[in-house]
Design goal:
The protein is of the alpha+beta class and 53 residues long. It has 1 helix and 2 strands; from the N terminus they run E-E-H.
């Protein structure tokens, strides 16, 4: 599993342990959704802060 983390356009380096940990958490959350099969190929998540922060 390959995980890439970008913050404000800057790639954040992660070792294999951190990539595996983050990947497994996201994978577990997504695969619990009823419409997602376990044979997915790619998951993309984009997070933005609210303007009120």
């Amino acid at each position: 599993m390959k995980i890439e983390l970008m913050v404000d356009g800057r790639k954040i380096p992660m070792n294999e342990f951190v990539q595996t940990m983050i990947g497994n958490v996201i994978k577990a959350m997504v695969e619990t959704l009823h419409t997602i099969d376990s044979d997915w190929k790619e998951i993309s998540i984009r997070v933005e802060q609210d303007e009120t922060n």
